[in-house]
Design brief:
The structure holds two protein chains of two kinds.
Chain A lengths: L8 E5 L3 H13 L3 E5 L2 H10 L4 E5 L7 H10 L6 E5 L4 H9 L4 E4 L4 H16 L6 E4 L2 E4 L4 E4 L2 E3 L3 H12 L5 E2 H9 L9 H13 L8 E4 L3 E4 L5
Parallel strand pairs in A: 1-2, 1-3, 3-4, 4-5
Antiparallel strand pairs in A: 6-7, 7-8, 8-9, 10-12, 11-12
Helix pairs in contact in A: 2-3, 6-7
Chain B lengths: L2 H6 L2 H68 L5 E5 L5 E4 L1 E4 L8 E9 L5 E10 L5 E7 L1 H51 L15 H50 L4 H33 L7 E4 H18 L3 E6 L3 E4 L1 H18 L15 E9 L2 E7 L7 H7 L18 H11 L3 E6 L4 E8 L5 H8 L2 H5 L1
Parallel strand pairs in B: 8-10
Antiparallel strand pairs in B: 1-2, 1-6, 3-4, 4-5, 5-6, 7-9, 10-11, 11-13, 12-13
Classes of the chains: A alpha/beta, B alpha+beta.
């Protein structure tokens, strides 16, 4: 977070006191404004009146369940990005959540790093879609139309999947992207591999875009995932 | 319900009643037919005899006149068991015969009449079938036959009918009760056993007789079912024991580590390291837990709601693409060979099952030194999608040590990690999940020998009627890859 950026406002709608307090505290520590609603009705009215960047909604809530809350918000034209938290981690539950109007879905138990990374990606979507044709990070350039990738003066040859991986990372440049997010968004798999399969893809990509260059752009964020950014910024 | 009520409500008893009714109906109609025909026959007999006699007597009268007639009449009327005769004068006076009285007016009707009469030598009323003819000069001749015989016969038949119906009813109901009680007795025995089994004694079995009748067959089938349930329950118990073990071990490790970190006053870096390992350990636990839930879900058939049509070749190519760099990093090569394989199923689950097989091949499929499989590279892992008749085969072949034939069935079970792999990380759930996914789709997971190595194959039913569309679809696959 840079000093000039407006503080991100998050509404957490979660009935379990302890995990709610933990989330509020953790979000405040990274410099967000975090509000808390303990049931579905309260959450709905807060979400409607407050100007939030992201809503974090538990699926099972007292008074009004998470999916109905989201549906009701969407019916009223409220497009605030929603991340659904659920103890039901299965594929069809995720699909149900996304169909109801959720933007992302995270099964419990989750790591805060994962949640934070997803919330940041979601909120950026709210500010304005990064749908430019050419992504730039430092001297790395990716043209989404011509599928051309270059670093400085050097043209880079990437495999189709490497291209999509880099495209996703650059779309979210400056943000942490977790392994699960990559697996979901680049490969469209929602299971959890028992091996470090994503790391291997990243290290291949890294050897193509960073090897032989003075300043590395693709960084590993310990305990969270990866981030592409120009080292100076 | 009373015992009798229970008895008469049995199927056996009700069937007996239906049969009883049918038999009674049959007996009654048989007797009725018999009676009616006999009556007709007797009547016919009488008609013939009477006609013949009238012919004869008229002849005598015509040849020998009234005197001859009366003579003959006298003779014939006195014979024992004789027919009935009466000759009257034109004025109605009786001249000869063996009839004392007749119903009035009978002599006035020419032709056949059934009438009451009284014989000369017997003063009780009888009935007879008579024919009256007019002779010349106004004399009238009556010849007839007593109907006692016919009546008696009728009486016998009626009695027979009564008795036979009575016997049928008594025997029928008795038999019904007997059969019903026998059946009821056996059903009660079965019910008793099932109650015991429901109460928790899973080792109980239904009594099976030696007759091999339908009840015995039913009991045998139910016993086979109980056998299966018992095996499943035992399996479930084993699984929960295994779960307890496999989840408790890392939990204990986790706890010990936390305790140790607390007890030792270390540097911040030490604490940090301990916490990181704690998170790692709990991530492993969560993964195991997720895998278990996934298996349970696949096994219970809940994932059936989320099925669509796709080509197994795409899944194979996708998994190949995902794991190829990982295999290479491990000093192996991952190859893929696909043909159109139309599947109707849960794409996500099938992808995961295939991913598990590939991960296993990368982890455990390293070739032993000096191994050279025929026509291939020892370190090559092959993902293959092909169709065989009505089945789609998604297989992963490695040339590692393989799994001995005797261990293959065991290897699919939950948490089983064969001796050879104990030292490698993993939850031991990969093959179980693959197997559960195959079962969910009506297929199976087959483990075979790759001489040397392991072939793990997901055998799934091919989607019917989808081959043409898919053939068209897969044509553009090489273009995409280019």
């Amino acid at each position: 977070m840079t000093a000039t950026a407006p503080q991100m406002r998050i509404l957490i709608i979660e009935d379990d006191r302890e995990s709610a307090d933990y989330l509020v505290k953790a979000f405040r520590e990274v410099g967000y404004i975090a509000d808390l609603a303990a049931d579905g009705e309260e959450g709905l009215s807060m979400a409607e009146t407050g100007e939030y960047d992201v809503l974090v909604v538990d699926r099972m809530l007292p008074k009004r369940d998470g999916l109905s809350l989201i549906g009701s918000l969407r019916d009223k034209g409220n497009r605030t990005p929603v991340l659904i938290l659920s103890a039901l981690g299965q594929v069809d539950d995720r699909i149900k959540g996304l169909r109801a109007g959720g933007d992302d879905y995270l099964p419990k138990p989750y790591s805060f790093a994962e949640l934070l990374a997803r919330v940041e990606v979601l909120s950026r979507r709210n500010v304005g879609p990064a749908e430019e044709t050419v992504y730039r990070v430092g001297d790395l350039e990716l043209d989404r139309l011509s599928h051309r990738v270059a670093r400085g003066k050097d043209e880079l040859t990437l495999q189709p999947r490497e291209f999509r991986l880099l495209e996703y990372l650059m779309k979210h440049a400056g943000q942490v992207v977790t392994r699960t997010m990559l697996l979901e968004n680049v490969w469209d798999y929602h299971f959890d591999p028992q091996t470090n399969v994503i790391d291997v893809h990243i290290s291949r990509l890294r050897s193509k875009i960073d090897k032989g260059f003075e300043r590395p752009l693709l960084h590993t964020i310990r305990g969270a995932g990866y981030m592409i950014r120009d080292g100076i910024r | 319900m009373t015992a009798f009520g229970k008895l008469i409500r049995t199927t056996a008893f009700r069937l007996t009643l239906v049969y009883l009714f049918l038999f009674a109906l049959f007996a009654a109609s048989l007797l009725g037919y018999f009676a009616w025909n006999t009556r007709r026959l007797i009547t016919e007999q009488i008609t013939i005899t009477v006609n013949a006699e009238i012919g004869e007597i008229s002849d005598i009268y015509n040849r020998r006149g009234l005197r001859g007639l009366l003579n003959t009449m006298g003779n014939r009327a006195l014979r024992p068991g004789a027919n009935l005769y009466l000759v009257t004068a034109p004025n109605g006076q009786a001249l000869a015969g063996n009839i004392e009285s007749l119903a009035p007016g009978v002599m006035g009707i020419q032709g056949w009449t059934e009438t009451a009469y009284r014989r000369l030598d017997d003063n009780t009323d009888h009935r007879a079938l008579v024919r009256v003819t007019e002779l010349t000069n106004g004399f009238r001749l009556l010849v007839g036959r007593d109907l006692e015989e016919r009546r008696r016969l009728f009486g016998i038949v009626a009695k027979a009918a009564q008795w036979s119906i009575l016997v049928v009813v008594v025997l029928g109901i008795g038999g019904g009760i007997f059969v019903a009680r026998r059946v009821l007795h056996r059903i009660d025995a079965m019910t008793g056993t099932t109650r015991r089994i429901m109460a928790g004694d899973l080792s109980g079995r239904l009594p099976v007789g030696r007759s091999g009748d339908e009840l015995d067959r039913l009991a045998e089938n139910l016993n086979a079912m109980l056998e299966r349930i018992e095996a499943l329950m035992t399996g479930l118990k084993e699984v929960s024991d295994n779960i307890a073990h496999d989840l408790k071990t890392p939990l204990t490790r986790l706890r010990n580590r936390a305790e140790e970190a607390l007890a030792r006053s270390g540097s911040e870096a030490d604490y940090r390291a301990a916490l990181e390992r704690t998170i790692e350990e709990s991530d492993g636990l969560i993964r195991t837990f997720n895998a278990l839930l996934m298996i349970a879900r696949a096994e219970s058939g809940q994932a059936r709601g989320n099925m669509d049509d796709f080509d197994g070749a795409d899944v194979a190519n996708g998994i190949h693409e995902l794991y190829e760099p990982l295999a290479e990093d491990d000093g192996m090569t991952l190859q893929v060979k696909t043909a159109p394989t139309p599947i109707h199923g849960n794409r996500e689950l099938i992808s995961q099952a295939l991913a598990n097989l590939v991960e296993n091949a990368i982890k455990y499929g390293k070739p032993e030194a000096g191994v050279q499989p025929p026509g291939g590279q020892a370190s090559a892992i092959l993902i293959e999608a092909r169709r065989e008749g009505g089945q789609v085969l998604l297989s992963v072949t490695d040339h590692g040590p393989g799994i001995p034939e005797g261990d293959r069935k065991h290897a699919v079970e939950r948490f089983v990690r064969l001796e050879a792999s104990r030292t490698l990380p993993g939850s031991g759930l990969g093959l179980s999940l693959a197997s559960a996914v195959a079962t969910l789709h009506g297929g199976e997971l087959r483990l075979g020998d790759a001489h040397p190595g392991l072939v793990a194959t997901l055998v799934l039913p091919a989607r019917v009627g989808g081959s043409d569309r898919l053939a068209a679809q897969t044509q553009d696959v090489p273009q995409k890859a280019a």
